[in-house]
Amino acid sequence: MVAVVADPPEEGQATKTPTEAVAQVLPSTKFLRNVGLEIPALKKSTSASAQVQELQAEVQSERENSAALREKMEDQQTKLEDLNLKFQESEAARDNQREEIESLKKQEEETNTLLRRLLCLSRE
Where are the residues of the annotated region Disordered (predicted)? Predict the structure, then answer.
């Protein structure tokens, strides 16, 4: 254990504490739990597990956001299709109105022509 504590630490690592040295020399987790010592390796795996859970939660959140965005996009697509249908209907109605106006103008011209003829006949 003394040799483990005396070893120089690797780059970026802190020197090992006596608890870490005991955990390295005595890997029996039951003994260390009975003595009341924490195992640094378990802390690392716990933090890794926590990171994995955080990442899983983040992925799940992204999936939910993606599903919500997809649903919103589908709703907007439906609204766009409805608007396009209404636009086409209004264009068709406008074309019908144009045809009706043209027809009424022709009828007006025919009526005016007929009235002129009648007036001309009545003068004679």
Answer: 1-20
Q: pLDDT confidence of 42, banded at 50, 70, 90? A: very low
Residue 52 to residue 104: CA distance in whole angstroms: 77
Question: Is residue 20 very low, low, confident or very high in pLDDT (cuts 50, 70, 90)?
Answer: confident
Taking the domains of the chain in order of start, what are their residue ranges?
Answer: 1-38, 41-124
- Give long-range contacts, CB 8 A cutoff, 24+ apart: 13-18: none
How confident is the model over 64-103, as pLDDT tens digits? 999 999 999 999 999 999 999 999 999 999 999 999 999 9
